[in-house]
Design brief:
Shape: elongated
Strand content: under 5%
Radius of gyration: 48 Å
Largest sheet: none
Structural class: mainly alpha
Number of helices: 7
């Protein structure tokens, strides 16, 4: 509201120098400084008295309790915020790159053991396919997937004649009858 800049202060100083005079100007500034110091001291004392009254009434304890109750940690919002930040920071391309780097770091022995296992599995599948159904039924390969057999559904032939509806009493109104040709 009251914004006094350096230009305004300069104008006030020049006007004060002209109106008051150079002899009385230092006394006036000294008196103004004492008045300002006394006003600040009174404001400080008033503020301390209000804080003491608030302490006596327990306002700070209530404010502290309200702050603790409404804290995000007490409500569990800090965990939710952490999860949201983790989700927002997730980069699928970075995850794929890390997985690729992990596979690249495999030792030569690990690569060789993986290759041997793959070759054994391929050989077992090939031998099971060529051995025929009887050999495959007697000794299935360990890595072969189990066969899924669909249950048989019994179908019943409909040979009976369709039932004819019973006649309704004439006293009640019924929906108009439709024939096979009408829909």
């Amino acid at each position: 509201m009251f914004d006094i800049g350096w230009t305004e202060m300069l104008i006030i100083g020049i006007v004060a120098l002209i109106v008051i005079g150079p002899k009385d100007l230092p006394d006036m500034f000294r008196t103004l400084g004492k008045f300002t110091a006394k006003a600040k001291s009174m404001a400080r004392d008033f503020h301390r008295a209000m804080d003491a009254a608030a302490d006596d009434a327990g306002v700070k304890d209530v404010a502290k309790d309200l702050k603790n109750i409404s804290s995000p940690k007490a409500m569990g919002l800090d965990a939710l915020k952490g999860a949201a930040n983790q989700f927002e920071g997730w980069d699928p391309l970075k995850a794929a790159k890390e997985a690729t780097q992990t596979h690249e770091k495999l030792s030569a022995e690990e690569v060789a053991s993986i290759a041997k296992a793959s070759a054994r599995r391929t050989k077992a599948e090939a031998s099971a396919a060529t051995a025929g159904s009887s050999a495959a039924a007697k000794a299935p390969a360990k890595t072969a997937a189990p066969k899924v057999v669909a249950p048989k559904v019994a179908t019943k032939a409909v040979t009976s004649k369709p039932k004819t509806p019973k006649a309704t009493p004439k006293a009640t109104k019924s929906a108009p009858k439709t024939t096979k040709g009408e829909l």
